[in-house]
Amino acid sequence: MTVAVLGAGKIGEALLSGLLHAGYAPEDLLFTERHPERAAELTERYGVAGVEVADAAKRADVLVVAVKPQDIDPVLDELSGLVGPCSLVVSMCAGLPTSLFERRLPEGTPVVRVMPNTPMLVGAAMSAVSPGKHATDEQLRTVEELLSSVGKVIVLPESQQDAVTALSGSGPAYFFYLVEAMIDAGILLGLPRAVAQQLIVQAAVGAGKMLDEGGQHPVMLRENVTSPGGTTINGIRELEKHGVRAALLDAIESARDRSIELGKVHEE
After folding, report:
1. 67 is in an annotated binding site
2. Which residues of this UniProt protein bind NADP(+) (predicted)?
3. pTM score
């Protein structure tokens, strides 16, 4: 199976890198990139050929559209005369519904909407998958198998994709933001930056592993660290005092609203 990634930005490159690490051969992968310097850099780095959109559509079994939502119109214009019911189009464009692709591409073109995240780069992505009206169960399984090679996959109704975009798609950025703040706190307390970073990054890795493998609710895990009258409860009190929980709720809700806005821009 040949896979072409249309748009080799951060998420497109993450998919290429993840597929290669998962065992895909470079000759089974293609990508498109409008900047020649960037295309040459990626070909040198990964050994994958950079091609034009028309060539990708002709040669690939699966076309993964990974451009920014605001750049989708010229891509759809170009694809409209090149794809059809025999092509499988996978959209990784935040906020854009499958109905947009189905409306702009030839009748019967199968489309699957995916919301991945950047941990795909290290084989630890969380990808939410939703089939369009023309995608078959077999084609959905093809997308699941493709994405399973770079992380975990969940199939959801498309009506939930905007929430997924806010929670999972943007989620790594929130964790990075918190880790950055905690490293700064370590520096404030007198630790060298390198030491603070090592401590917090490993704490994050360990906490994530406990969440993933331990089977316990996050509340129970937090309570296990929070001794009566101890240091942690004092820290938690300050987080609650400053409304960190409410701020996270508002941030994720705002991201969801922006995902909805991106889709509405392309409504008829």
Report:
1. yes
2. 66-69
3. 0.90
